[in-house]
Amino acid sequence: MLELKNIYKVFNPGTINEKKAIQNLNFTLNDGDFVTVIGGNGAGKSTMLNLIAGVYSVDQGSILIDGENVTKKPEYKRAAYLGRVFQDPMMGTAGNMGIEENLAMAYRRGKSRGLRWGISNAERALYREKLKMLDLGLENRMTNKVRLLSGGQRQALTLLMATLQQPKLLLLDEHTAALDPKTAQKVLDITDRIVSENHLSTLMVTHNMKDAIRYGNRLIMMNEGNIIFDVSGEEKKNLHVSDLLKRFEDISSDRMLLA
Questions:
Q1: Residue 82 vs residues 1, 75, 77, 115, 161: alpha-carbon distances, Å
Q2: Percentage of the chain with pLDDT > 70?
Q3: Of residues 119 and 114, which shows the higher confidence score?
């Protein structure tokens, strides 16, 4: 579903602030894979997601989504393939619009627009059914302004909006990092259910190693713009946080030796 081939990305090249963010990155995401992505600050996790989404252009290499080369496509054209949820719950929704109006925007994305005004009864029934899946009571508050929702409710709504059209690829960029632990757990469980039920190919960046092990069928660790650990299946299920910490310690030791 996703192929990254020989990807390079350097920020501020040729200056004192030059940063080699991604270096010869090669990665394949199979159809239906749910991959968790971990790594230290500056490892290249969010940069990788931004390159896939077209926020940044690659310096070298190619990006294919479902077999189509999107390397040169701008961000707005790639949006047809992608669903994305950011760390900030405020980024994915329009606070001054109602819940059903936000869902209508997501549902009609990429579709031709007619002169008909408003939300049909059939659409409203669909939104109510989808909201019930969240188990947050939002199906009874569909006309409420989104700004009145809590951070967790808003992030769950954003997740629903991002997956309403069943994207070819779902990108989750630390989408529970700004939430309290209890709410984060609720949103992660909703995420797992939506991804599983819709067989969505998913990349989820997280700093929480327990979550990285618990969710998904595959885990990758990044360091200095490349993948240094890739594990799946039973091997992933048998991982412990201590295993991942050991790898982080090994990376730190290697850096000290190189210095």
A1: 11, 10, 10, 27, 12
A2: 94
A3: 119
Q: 170: exposed, middle or buried (C-beta count within 10 Å: 0-12, 13-18, 19+)? A: buried
**115 pLDDT exceeds 70?**
no
* Per-residue pLDDT, 235: 92
pLDDT of residue 259: 41
Mean pLDDT of the chain: 89
Torsion angle (degrees, nearest 10) of CA 126, 132, 138, 141: 50
DSSP string for residues in 21-47: EEEEEEEEE-TT-EEEEEE-TTSSHHH
State the Cα angle at 16 between 12 and 21, rounded to 5°: 45
Strands 202-205 and 169-173: parallel
CATH class as words, domain 2-258? alpha beta
**Sequence-ordered strand ranges (E) for the chain:** 2-11, 19-29, 34-39, 60-65, 68-69, 82-85, 169-173, 202-205, 218-223, 226-232
Indicate the DSSP class of residue 114. Answer: -
> Tokens 């910490």 sit at which residue?
245
Domain map (residue ranges) of the chain: 2-258
Q: Provide Rg for the chain, Cα atoms.
A: 19
Please determine, for residue 209, whether its predicted confidence score (pLDDT) is greater than 60: yes
Q: How far apart are CA 166 and CA 198, in angstroms?
A: 7
Q: What pLDDT is attached to residue 122?
A: 87
Q: At what angle do helices 121-134 and 151-163 cross, to 10 degrees?
A: 120
The pLDDT value given to residue 111: 61
